[in-house]
Amino acid sequence: VEAVEHDNPDVADILIENHADINVATQDGKTPIDWAVENGHDRTAELLLRYGATIDRRGKYDWTPLHLTAWNGHVELTRILIRNHAEINALDEFGNTPLDKASNPEIKKLLIDAGGLTGKLYTQAMKNYFRHIVTLVMACCISLASAAVAQDTPSADELLKAMRDMTVSQGNKDVAGTIRKARNKIPFSLSARGET
């Protein structure tokens, strides 16, 4: 850790070649990559990443090294972490991404160009994504249920009712509407029994 703290990549390289643990944490929980990115040590950070340092390790406040570089304004380190596939939209314990922590316009541009979103936008995007996944899964279930209903299997009809009830109770009216529309296309459905 001292070789990293003092930005001495040559000594760090020798230590790593002799099996030093590159992900060892100090008493305060910092690893060599944390020290390198926090202090703006580009070459040392690149060396650690080349040897397999954990790029998205979570530290204080659940920050990743990319949060640290964005916060500290280290442009070149931000480039290095992006180039090494750091998680661009990692959320910290407060729901902030590295873009939320960046104040330097150049870092903001780098993060946005790499697909970075603010925590609020990222959270909304993920909610939309999961809503679409739920809709897709429900559509698959409906297709399976339709095939079973066509064979006069009562459990399929009950499955449709349970799926509809579940989506309505969770406030997902668009998925419930999808189920309702699908039920209208099924030859034998809940509506045939007088249920709604």
Topology:
Blueprint: H1 2-5, H2 9-17, H3 32-38, H4 42-50, H5 65-72, H6 75-83, H7 98-101, H8 105-113, H9 119-150, H10 154-169, H11 173-185
Helix pairs in contact: 3-4, 3-5, 5-6, 6-8, 9-10, 9-11, 10-11
Please tell me about this protein's structure.
- This protein has about 200 residues and is an all-alpha fold.
- It has eleven helices and no strands.
- The chain has helices at about 1-5, 10-15, 30-40, 40-50, 65-70, 75-85, 100, 105-115, 120-150, 155-170, 175-185.
- The N and C termini lie far apart (about 65 Å).
- The model is unreliable at about 185-195 (pLDDT under 50).
Task: Give short descriptive properties of this protein.
196 residues, mainly alpha, 11 helices, 61% helix, elongated, disordered C terminus
Strand percentage, roughly?
under 5%
Kindly state the mean pLDDT as a whole number? Answer: 76
Query: What does the radius of gyration come to?
Result: 26 Å
Gap between N and C termini: 66 Å
| Secondary structure category | mainly alpha
Helix fraction, binned, reads 55-70%
Overall strand count: 0
Largest sheet: none
Shape: elongated
Which parts are unreliable, with pLDDT below 50 for 5 consecutive residues or more?
A: 187-196
Number of helices: 11
Written as H for each helix and E for each strand, in order along the chain, the element string is: HHHHHHHHHHH
